[in-house]
Write a structure and sequence with these properties.
It is a single chain. By secondary structure, the protein is α+β, with helices and mostly antiparallel strands. It has two domains: about 120 residues, Creatine Amidinohydrolase, Chain A, domain 1, CATH 3.40.350.10; about 210 residues, Alpha-Beta Complex (Creatine Amidinohydrolase), CATH 3.90.230.10. The strands form six sheets. A six-stranded mixed beta sheet has the order 4-3-2-1-5-6, sandwiched between helices. Strands 7-10-11 form a three-stranded antiparallel beta sheet. A three-stranded antiparallel beta sheet has the order 8-9-12, covered by helices on one side. The longest helix has 21 residues. The protein is elongated and about 70 Å long. The structure holds manganese (II) ion. Manganese (II) ion binds next to loops.
Length: about 350
């Protein structure tokens, strides 16, 4: 992978006085090495970087992880990892405490007799917070595919159609338009079910008068797009129009004020203040958004509980919602790149009017 990414790891080695870091988190493994397979461990020191993987991936890892020396895993992955560490005479080794299971840790600790283990938290993951140009363009393509799938799905939303069949149609259109899959299980929640912020698509049939929330996105080259639109089947009531407008105003306010350097809590407040002032604060029970990338939910979050700053070139969702039990809900979500003075919106699907179908 490109040298800049390895330099992020060198900085961690320096800061923590480590000889090497063991990387086991699948997305971190992919980000730092370029290897897209499902199993393998990176061992990265200042002088040398290794990828330990099993027979299934020897050829693939050799092709993809160009900056890494391939170590063919023996019977036990951790034994092979420590053969590398001992051969290099590395003594102080960081590992991802958020990723290593207790069972793996017991094996590591047994093998690390002459080695000092240092538990890292999210240091390695933080290297993925700001996206590079290639990552941003990949996410932009995922958002474009998501827009196309939505455009194809919208005409299928009508009375009598099951939520899960709409989800299937959306997923099919994502694939048809170039996605390798869905970024997560597509949410379709209609009528009273639209009051469930993460209502999985069910066997419920769409009815006239229903608000319908569809939340989904393309998985494209490993990166996760995310978008939500809410429409109404038939003519909207005044209350449906009012709630939609309030959510839209809150989202537009957040989009116009969002920029790098703000904390996640400050960004969240842009939308939350408006919704709270209108009397619906208790009905907006989730955060304003989250970062996306190789995972669908990444840090920093846009949330009242996020003290971290949103870095330049992070890609985040902005998705306020209002949910009224037994009535329904509205959520509007766009995917944006955070710049120094504002955002670049990657989502193009229309939203300025509550669409009546
Ligand atoms: Mn989201």
């Amino acid at each position: 992978m490109n040298q800049t990414r390895l330099h992020k790891l060198y900085r961690i080695l320096n800061d923590q006085q480590l000889d090497a870091v063991i990387i086991t988190n699948p997305q971190n493994r992919r980000y730092y090495s370029g290897f897209t397979g499902s199993a393998g461990v990176l061992v990265v020191g200042l002088t040398k970087a290794y990828i330990v993987t099993d027979f299934r991936y020897w050829e693939q890892a050799g092709i993809e992880a160009v900056k890494f020396e391939l170590i063919k895993q023996g019977q036990y992955v951790w034994t092979s990892v420590f053969e590398v560490i001992n051969a290099a005479a590395w003594k102080r080794i960081g590992f991802e405490a958020e990723d290593v299971t207790y069972r793996d840790y017991l094996q590591i600790a047994k093998l690390a007799q002459d080695v000092e283990l240092v538990a890292l938290t999210d240091e390695v993951k933080r290297g993925r917070w700001a996206k590079d140009t290639a990552e941003i363009e990949t996410l932009a393509e995922g958002a474009r595919i998501t827009d196309l799938a939505w455009q194809q799905t919208i005409s299928k939303i009508k009375p009598g159609v099951k939520e899960r069949d709409l989800a299937l149609e959306f997923d099919y259109q994502l694939r048809l338009n170039g996605a390798e899959g869905s970024a997560f299980t597509t949410i379709v929640a209609s009528g009273y079910r639209s009051a469930l912020p993460h209502g999985a698509a069910s066997g419920k049939e769409i009815q006239a008068g229903d608000l319908v929330i569809i939340d989904g996105g393309a998985l494209y080259q490993g990166y996760h797009a995310d978008m939500t639109r809410t429409v109404v089947v038939g003519r909207a009531t005044d209350e449906q129009k009012k709630i939609y407008q309030l959510v839209l105003d809150a989202q537009m306010r957040a989009l116009s004020l969002l920029k790098s350097g703000l904390t996640g809590k400050e960004a969240d407040a842009f939308a939350r203040e408006l919704i709270t002032d209108a009397g619906y604060g208790a009905n907006f029970g989730h955060g304003l958004g989250h970062s996306v990338g190789l995972e669908i939910h990444e840090s920093p979050r846009l949330s009242p509980s996020e003290p971290n700053q949103i870095p330049l070139d992070s890609v985040v969702t902005v998705e306020p919602g209002i949910y009224l039990p037994n009535w329904g809900g509205v959520r509007i979500e766009d995917l944006v790149v955070v710049g120094e003075t504002g955002v670049r919106n990657l989502t193009g699907s229309p939203k300025t009017e509550l669409i009546e179908l």
